[in-house]
Design a protein that fits this description.
Elements lengths: L1 H23 L20 H9 L14 H14 L1 H6 L1 E5 L3 E6 L9 E6 L26 E3 L7 H16 L8 E6 L10 H10 L4 E6 L3 E3 L10 E8 L1 E10 L3 E2 L8 H14 L10 H8 L5 H8 L1 H11 L5 E9 L5 E2 L2 E10 L5 H11 L5 E9 L10 H13 L4 E7 L12 E6 L4 E2 L13 E3 H17 L2
Parallel strand pairs: 3-5, 3-6, 6-16, 7-17, 8-15
Antiparallel strand pairs: 1-2, 2-5, 4-18, 7-8, 9-13, 9-14, 10-12, 11-13
GO molecular function: metal ion binding; peptidase activity
Keywords: Hydrolase, Metal-binding, Protease, Zinc
Protein name: Peptidase M20 dimerisation domain-containing protein
C-alpha cells in the first residue's frame, strides 16, 4: 500500500511539474515597436463626423431598396469635405451606392492594400429615442462625444480613413503601395450587393492584395478578467451565418379537444431539443492562436490553464464561445386563442465555427428534431471564412503599428462571432484582418446597434492616427 501511495504521489508531482513547466515557459508574443506619435489633426474632424451621421443611410432588409436620397446625399457630402481625396484618387461607383477609391502607388511591384468600412447603419427602435442623449441622426457634439447612429458602426472608421488620406495628401505623401478604400452600402444586411460586388470588380481587374483591413476587431478595456492593459483584438476569421426555419403542419383543431401532440407543442419540443443538444466546443484555428498570445499576459492561475489546453480547454473554450451557437430568434403560429393552429414556424440562427459548414449544421438539425418537422434554410447564409495568417507581412505591420501607438496594448489574434463585409475579400487578398482601434468596455459595448450610440472624441482621433500610421508603415 505504501508503494502504491508513493507511486501516486510521484505521478501527482510529475503532473504538477508538467503544468507548472508549461506555464513558466509560456513566452510573450508581444513585440517591441518604435513609438509612433499621434499626428497633428486638422480642425473640423468632429464636425465632419457629425455631418456624416446626419445622413440616415439605413439598411432595413436584404429586399428593401436603399434610401437613394440618403446615400447620394452622403456621397456629395464626402466630395465636399474631402477635396484632396476626390482630386487625387480614382473613384468607382459599384452597384449604384458602394464606393471604391483607388490611390495609385509609386511601386507597382508591391502588392496593394485594401481598407474597408461601410456606409450603412442599422435602424433605431423608435420607443428608445428618449433614452438617447441626442437624436440618432442629429449629429450632436458634446465636450466629450460625437453622438449618433453609425459613430461606432461604422461611419466612424469610414470617416477616419478619409481624414487620414486627406491629411497624408496635404503632406504631399505618395504611397509605395496602391491603396484601395472600399465602402459597401449594405453590410448590415449581408453585403451581397455592396462589398461582394466590389470584390468581384477587383478580381476582374486582376487585383491581388497583400491584405485587407476591415472592422470587427477592437481595443478591449476591462473585458478580459485579470488583464488591466487594453487588449488589441485582431480577428483573423469570422464564424459562418445560417438560419433555418422549423415548420410544423398538422390538421389543427379546437382547443377544447387538444391532441397529445399539437402543432405548437411539437415545435416547442424541437426548439428545446436543439438547445439541449448544442454543437460541441472545439479547439480550432484561430482559437489556438488566441490562447498562445493571451496566455502569457494573464495572472498565474489563468496562465496555467492557457498553457495546458490539453487538460483545461473545456472552461476556456466555453468562455470563448468556441462552438457553433444555436439561437431561436423568431416564432409564429396561431390565429385565435381557442384554435389549435395548422402551421407553426420558428427560425433558428446558427453562428458556425470554422471546421463546420452550413451542410453539417442542417444535418445536425435533422438528426435532432422529430422527422415530421420540415427544415428549410432561410435568408442570408454563409460558411465560416478562411483563417488569415499570423506569420505574414501584413500581420507584422498591423502588430507593429498597434504597439507603436498603444505600447501598453496586448495584441491578440482571435475569431469574431459576428459577420463583416471582409468575408468577400479572401479571394483577392493574401490575408484579411479585422481591426480598427475602436475602444470597447463594459460601459459602451452595448451601444453597438444599441441605444445612445456615441464615440469619444479621443478615440475617434486615435482611429485617425492609426489609419494614418498604418498606411505609412506599409511602405
Amino acid at each position: 500500500m505504501k508503494k502504491i501511495l508513493l507511486v501516486l504521489l510521484a505521478l501527482i508531482l510529475i503532473f504538477a511539474a508538467v503544468l507548472l513547466f508549461n506555464a513558466f515557459t509560456l513566452e510573450s508574443r508581444q513585440i517591441d515597436a518604435e513609438p509612433l506619435a499621434q499626428p497633428e489633426l486638422p480642425s473640423g474632424i468632429y464636425d465632419r463626423l457629425a455631418g456624416a451621421i446626419t445622413f440616415p443611410t439605413i439598411s432595413v432588409s436584404e429586399e428593401a431598396e436603399p434610401d437613394s436620397a440618403a446615400f447620394k446625399g452622403f456621397h456629395k457630402f464626402l466630395d465636399s469635405v474631402f477635396p484632396r481625396v476626390h482630386e487625387n484618387l480614382e473613384l468607382t461607383l459599384i452597384g449604384e451606392y458602394s464606393l471604391l477609391y483607388r490611390w495609385e502607388g509609386s511601386d507597382q511591384a508591391k502588392k496593394p492594400v485594401i481598407f474597408m468600412s461601410h456606409q450603412d447603419v442599422v435602424p433605431v427602435d423608435q420607443p428608445t429615442l428618449e433614452e438617447w442623449e441626442a437624436g440618432p441622426f442629429e449629429g450632436a457634439i458634446t465636450d466629450e462625444y460625437v453622438i449618433g447612429r453609425g459613430t461606432m458602426d461604422d461611419k466612424g472608421t469610414l470617416m477616419a480613413l478619409m481624414e487620414s488620406v486627406e491629411l497624408l495628401l496635404g503632406e504631399g505623401y505618395q504611397p509605395g503601395r496602391t491603396i484601395y478604400l472600399a465602402f459597401g452600402h449594405d453590410e448590415e444586411v449581408g453585403g451581397s450587393n455592396g462589398a461582394a460586388k466590389i470584390a468581384e470588380y477587383l478580381e476582374e481587374q486582376g487585383v491581388e492584395a497583400l491584405m485587407t483591413v476591415d472592422e470587427g476587431g477592437y481595443l478591449a478595456q476591462d473585458l478580459v478578467p485579470g488583464v488591466d492593459a487594453p487588449v488589441a483584438v485582431i480577428n483573423l476569421a469570422e464564424k459562418g451565418f445560417a438560419s433555418f426555419d422549423l415548420v410544423v403542419e398538422t390538421g389543427g383543431g379546437h382547443s377544447s379537444q387538444p391532441p397529445k401532440e399539437n402543432t405548437i407543442g411539437i415545435l416547442a419540443q424541437a426548439i428545446v431539443d436543439l438547445e439541449n443538444n448544442q454543437r460541441p466546443y472545439k479547439m480550432v484555428e484561430p482559437i489556438n492562436h488566441t490562447l498562445a498570445y493571451m496566455g502569457p499576459e494573464l495572472p498565474f492561475a489563468q496562465r496555467v490553464a492557457f498553457a495546458n489546453p490539453w487538460l483545461l480547454d473545456g472552461p476556456i473554450l466555453e468562455a470563448m464561445n468556441a462552438h457553433t451557437t444555436t439561437a431561436p430568434t423568431i416564432i409564429t403560429g396561431g390565429v385565435k386563442n381557442n384554435v389549435i393552429p395548422t402551421v407553426a414556424r420558428a427560425t433558428i440562427n446558427f453562428r458556425i465555427l470554422p471546421g463546420e459548414t452550413i451542410e453539417t449544421v442542417e444535418e445536425h438539425i435533422r438528426s435532432t428534431v422529430h422527422d415530421t418537422i420540415r427544415v428549410e434554410p432561410t435568408g442570408f447564409l454563409t460558411n465560416p471564412s478562411p483563417v488569415s495568417k499570423i506569420d505574414s507581412e501584413g500581420f507584422r505591420v498591423l502588430q507593429r503599428t498597434i504597439r507603436g501607438l498603444f505600447p501598453e496594448a496586448v495584441v491578440v489574434p482571435s475569431l469574431v462571432g459576428g459577420g463583416t463585409d471582409a468575408r468577400y475579400f479572401y479571394g483577392i487578398s493574401e490575408d484579411v484582418y479585422r481591426f480598427y482601434p475602436m475602444r470597447l468596455s463594459p460601459e459602451n459595448a452595448s451601444r453597438f446597434h444599441g441605444i445612445d450610440e456615441k464615440i469619444s472624441k479621443e478615440n475617434y482621433a486615435e482611429i485617425i492616427g492609426f489609419t494614418y500610421h498604418l498606411i505609412r508603415e506599409l511602405d
